[in-house]
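sorry to bug you again but im stuck and you know this stuff better than me. what follows is a protein written twice so to speak, once as letters and once as structure tokens for the fold. id like you to explain what the token line says about the fold, in plain words if possible. anything you notice is useful, everything is just below.
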Amino acid sequence: MTAHSSVPNVKLLIDGELVESKTTQWRDVVNPATQQVLARVPFATAEEMNAAVASAAEAFKTWRKTPIGARARIFLKYQQLIRENMKELAALLTAEQGKTLPDAEGDIFRGLEVVEHAANIGNLQMGELANNVAGGVDTYTLHQPLGVCAGITPFNFPAMIPLWMFPMAIATGNTFVLKPSEQDPLVTMRLAELAMQAGVPKGVLNVIHGGAEAVNLLCDHPDIKAVSFVGSTKVGTHVYNRATANGKRAQCMMGAKNHAIVLPDANRQQTLNNLLGAAFGAAGQRCMALSVVILVGEAQQWLPELIEKTRTLKINAGAEPGTDIGPVVSCAALDRVSGLIARGVEEGAELLLDGRNPQVPGYQDGNFVGPTIFAGVTPTMSIYREEIFGPVLCVMPAKTLDEAIALINANPNGNGTALFTRSGAAARRFQEDIDVGQVGINVPIPVPVPLFSFTGSRASKLGDLGPYGKQVVQFYTQTKTVTQRWFDEDEAGGPVNTTITLK
């Protein structure tokens, strides 16, 4: 596909300049509610991508020496600019990704929280000191930046996840090359422009666009020291293996199959509302979406009310007021979700609510699929084994809490889980026995605030350090230990010490 003049071309950001790509390979950025082409994004040439890395490597020489207070002040300015431009950013995000305007603002706000955290870098990047560990000897640690780091981000959170990555990497003294999703890069580019406006020096942040070739270049380039990834398990596993084989640090947040357990003592209305929001919000296109609900004992009697509440959700374009569920991101995504619903029926699940082919007046060309509920789901079915990434909820029964915990622990993924109950004893047993990285108690999407770190586990994560929070400061820095002794000018030299012991 070649670029046309009728719609704008998305630029590259290289060495502080927005650059028109010289590529011959372009992809349309499409509004999923209307199929309108909003822009065309280039698949950058190898020369352009190498130029972005070279710019970051050159900028690192001076950026790593920039005082920590100067770095922090940039992010104080940046968070202010994001707040001032929130409505514009949300409108861009909704147009290209499809989620509702309130959800788009939430996407940006959760990223904004990490920007605010980055402004606190002076407290986060402090080392440790042990005084007089031996005669006149002190030992202390420095947390120094690695160099050029890279980020590869998915389509479903085109504001939040880039903001998870480059602010913390840059605040810790690194430079960065970002590759956003080619499906919805417009809001990401606007955020990059605001970062430059906030004072990020040229070359410290660079943005390239592309597909598999861009991903592989970031994994292979010798000047890149660390790679952060959020996306599918297939691509994340490839990124982790390729990047680490090339001697890089890598953190990869990947696929999920998140469960909630509902005990009969839970607050009924609050629980049902939470289940609906977590299962069907963002059209199910969240790695932390709630895709399986396990109703324990008498809570199984809540299923008819769950279905009736679900029927009240409004399907429409994300920019329309009062919308609960917008379109999925692409025609291919719609086909995949619809296909998995059909397989669920073929494999024997009971389709209690079929969201396929909803009628959305004024948006007949949109990629819409309504909320869908299956019962009679077993662990061998495709709708249980695969991450659907659509508004599809699997309902499963269990006799006891222990049976429900065993079912969750048998699933290979470990991103998020939740328990709804009034029992402190049940909640404590659940949080102790469940083998999942992020646990919610009466909280359906337990993504931690930036004071902590995203902690998905097992098949949902490769690498031992999560994005943002305290863990990511470790990921983006190298610990250097300094052991020093200063001799008194008048002190007589002692005997030669041929042991390894400090005295």
Summary: The domain at 12-254+469-482 is CATH 3.40.605.10 (Aldehyde Dehydrogenase; Chain A, domain 1).
